[in-house]
Model the fold of this input.
Amino acid sequence: MRTDKGRSYGRESKPRRLQGEGIRLPKQPTRLTKHFSFACAYTNHRGAVKADVEDATAAQTVERARAAAQPDGAGTDGAGRRCPGVPSGPRTMYAALPPNASTTVETAQNRGAPFSRARIVRMGKKTSKDDDVKTQNLRKDLPIVAHEQTLEQVYASYSIDPEKGMTSAQVHESRAKWGSNRLTPAKQTPMWVLYLLQFTDFFSILLTAGGILCFVAYGLDQSDPSNLYLGVVLCLVVWITATFSFYQQAKSNKIMTGFKNMVPKTSKVIRDGAMTIVDAVELVPGDVVEYQEGDSVPADLRCIFTYNLKVDNSALTGESEAQDRQVDLERDGHGEEEGEAGAELKKVAAIEATNLMFFSTLVVTGHGRGIVVGTGDNTVMGQIAGLTSESSGVGKPPITREIDRFIFIIAAFAIILGLTFLGVGLGLGVMTVVQALVYAISVIVATVPEGLLATLTVALALTAKRMHSKNVLVKSLTSVETLGCTSVIASDKTGTLTQNRMTVQHCWYDTKIFDVPAPRNAPQFKIELEGPNKDIKGPQGWSRYDPQDTSFKMLHRIATLCNNSQFIVEDKESGGLIDLAAEIAKPDFDLLNLGCTGDASESGLIKMTQLVHDVNTYRAMFPKLFEIKFNSTNKWQLSVHDQGPFTAKENPGAAAPPLLVMKGAPEKVIKICTKIMFEGKIVNLTEELLAKFNQSYEELGALGERVLGFAYRELEGYDTKYEFADKPSCNFPTDDLIFAGLFALMDPPRDGVPEAVAECKRASIKVFMVTGDHPITAKAIAMQVGIIDEEVEKAGQATVCTGDDIRVIMDLPTEKEQNEAFDKVLAHKQIVFARVTPAHKLLIVENNQRHMEVVAVTGDGVNDAPALKKANVGVSMGISGKDVTKEAAAIILLDDNFASIVSGVEEGRLIFDNLKKSICYTLTSKPPELIPFIIWVAADFPLALSTILILAIDLGTDMIPAISLAYEVKEADIMSKPPRNAETDHLVTMSLLIFTYLHFGVLETCGAMFAFVVAFNDYGYAPGNLLGRGLSWDSKQLVCLQTSDGAAKQCGFGCDPPENPQAQIEALMLAYPAYAPSILAAGGGDSFNYCEDGCYIPSGSPGAPYDPFLEATAAGFRGFKAGVEAVCARTCAWYRTIRDTAGEGGMDYYLAESQKPDSDLRYVMTAEDKTAFEQACAVDASEFFGFTGRKEADSKSEAPVGGFYWWQFRNNYKPKYKYQAVVLQSAQTAYFTAVVMAKIACVIANKTRKLSIVHQGMMGNRIVIYSIIFEIVIVILIVYAPPLNTVFTTEPLYGAHFFMGLPWALLLLTYDEIRKWHIRTYPGGLADRITFW
Done:
């Protein structure tokens, strides 16, 4: 190849072998397909066989072609490879087919295609789906071979003239075949469908069904509005949870937007022999494109002409340095290998090719031309976009799976329990269908923690807010906890582990290597190089340089002058310029973070030299006369400067010829040097000095540092007026230079990264480096930060795995062999992956996940997006990260610092521990919520807690305390434990359930039930009078006997209210109109609702009316000894029956019993009853008198003979069952307050799991204190605020009733302190095994 001042021209290659193939290419231009298909078949001129070519990769082709090659009886394909049993022919195409594949092959007309892919079609056997094939191919290198071809072969492939470009017809044909140069958008679910899907999880369905049933129950019985309130609350909980989940998911569905924004707008292209500007989306394979500095590369291009061309590939490879691009392929590190067919060239991956440019990268310097070899999805960026869109992660995050598992268990238990008690209620006949349905719903509500999801969401959000203060921005809330159970961190190098800025690390002069510290300002510079730290040696034992050394001064001079970088001194806040000289003198100024123009190495150099001499001032003393910029041919840069101003100042009167300074690759620079500066003197460059140079150069290179050589020469005989030029060749000497020394730069580790890596090791987290950078550089950084330890490496447990190694693995014929090979790599304790592609990063993630590792991946480039999305937790850089990367990630590091990830891990572990505390706290209220319903049915005991009060606990008083536990500080050993195994270490364990239900739950229930029965007793209803009367308590009036001391005994229920008395009276007035006026005059409208709340007991006072049809006499309740009809359904027909009956059960029998004071039949028929019946039943309307068919109120608890209505501690003639309802509400309110008292004790106890609350204290988490105050305020409002009394069916309590649960709360705290003491004192003991959660 001929070069001319940075220009690179292609030439016709000599016959050579394709890398790794053993295939010799012909000299003459040939039309080549871009790769070879999988099929090994024969196609003759009759077209007997067809091949469907669509999805093969070059690497697979190579392996299969080798396996299929036979020395005899085989035909050859277009590249000279042979297939067994296939005759040769000029019109044949071959490919290696799996042995069990019987296919037909069709010639692929892929001229002008960027590449083609092969799909295996197996006859008679079902193949894998196309999507699976696509997924597999996306994980392999794109089969681009244009970089391996000569220019003539490339031109022939597309049938084009590079000076004229494609014809319009060719463009049309190519576009019809390959489509537009745009990325195919991924299929996305409509937003409204996504929103509806949020309502389909099991928990939401359960609560929604419960809400609907509540509405049904309210529709059937509108007398109880609590069912309506309950239904509204349940549906509201579902709606809020679903809406929040939708909002979180919608934010993450924007991945492809970032890729679309990367497409350039227009491009210069040669078509039909003329230059034209077209939209970049109109480019097609074969187009000849021109580009220049600042352009974004519009497609994947093969370079055909370059001039000083450099591109920024950082988005693809992570390399911070701009990369040279030229026409011919460089094979550094890809030399000849000895293969079976003799010496052959090792394959160069397309991503590493020096003659390819990739879509969306940036031209940094230079200009040139290229041929489009890939467009749209068929580009490296298209592959990344495809990987990103198809990478769906690993399913639900661990915390979501834990919650789903817990909810499923609890919900299944709730449903089974609810249905069981529904059947019991209906089977025993103690409830109506509506009552049983409401009861079942109540049981479900009492069992399911409705506020758990809200508590979880808020707790995670609060943790995310706390992490934001540590420079960690959380996009997906569930990823907070996932980060806590991370077992592998696959970290990018540049910008994450390192500072993403080239910094001078070492220098070499006077045959010695010196350490170069990196002070940030002048005060630090004085401390490090002139003050107490100047004698400190670096990690390798090298002393620090002395700024006063004569040799260093010359090295400093060259580094400052042969450098085009400038500081960007614009003040972003004010818009003006900062005074760098003044700012640098401030102790808080950070020069290293100041922006610079130019490439990274030059920026690193002036940040070092600025602290020695102000760069601008120094350069002003050496005005630049001429410059030759760096190019890939020379590999050096030189400039010529006027020394006059400097000499006039430093050495007046001395001669000052122009000064030539050079900077470049050390091996190139030293070759044109004959002398060297040694200890301030110029001496000959002897073999001994050259050997020392080589030794030091290798040492610095082994550290992974970029080493630059510096030389100079005074141009004697030239003056400043001389017109220096380099065309056609330099008109001044550029050899016989004086070598000044070396500067070695590196993107150094961030502060705190080694400590963070050490913390990860202590936490049993593996940290892998995954980078596109060079293996030597990657390993050097890994050694510095502790990812690779020297002793581990010596033991053979550390490795550096390169992209080429992964390609070898993926070329293995079976998936089993690939997995086994990858397992051998992952078996190492410490691993660095270098020179990897986006597909490789994805494979690294997937293979770790195959080992059940929880993987966190960090990255900032577009190439990281697929792995970030696939990882359990994707972590993007906030400063250097691309938009695509940020959208694919779940977490963003605002400071791009790896140490922030460790903080996130710590927070993730802390939130898991705190969520256990929150769940433990939440579940302790389930027994006191559930047990009252069980007792209500099983013991017919009054219901101690209503469903609306259950919701008041779950969604009211419990929420804030449960959330406050998320603020608990970490335990001392939180980062000393191995990561949580997401498959076995569950959030809710059996020990936690036992503790919450059988320990705290039972204690809470006992305390609350104590308050409940005490409240009843204080209202005159002793505990003994409650059993057996619970189901009818709030709808039937209690009838009791009164003891001599005024207490109630032998209580029961009387008769049901009459059925539809209004219809009965209306029928009477219709049948006997004459009675209507007297009926209306006697009672008016009230006559239609007589005995609605229970019939009055006759007072027995003189002159008072007497009604023989009532169930009581003036002496009390008649009793059920003679049957229900004799009490509740007394009519004239019944009277006539007993009147006409002789003996037992007749009139005379009951009249005789009425004279016996102790007879249970004494009130069935008294003499007064007989007289009243004779009068009433003698009239013509007597058939309407009495209570036909009326039933008793409760057959299991019948009112005693002689009993009276009991309320307000005494017998009463009038019924007032609503009083009982008020007493029940008061007792339920006392129960509710007692539960809340116990819950306050619970939140205090749950602050720790082992440690005494005395040692932990309360002030470390003030939010718990605030939550307790909030809880108390809510209870006071619910108990004493009249509007809330109506909503929650509560009653204001007496002070004693309000604090009835306080002793039990103190008992609970005491019990828990004793339990924790036992756990601490006897580790592994009974208390530890059973109760530690």
Remarks:
- The longest helix spans residues 398-427.
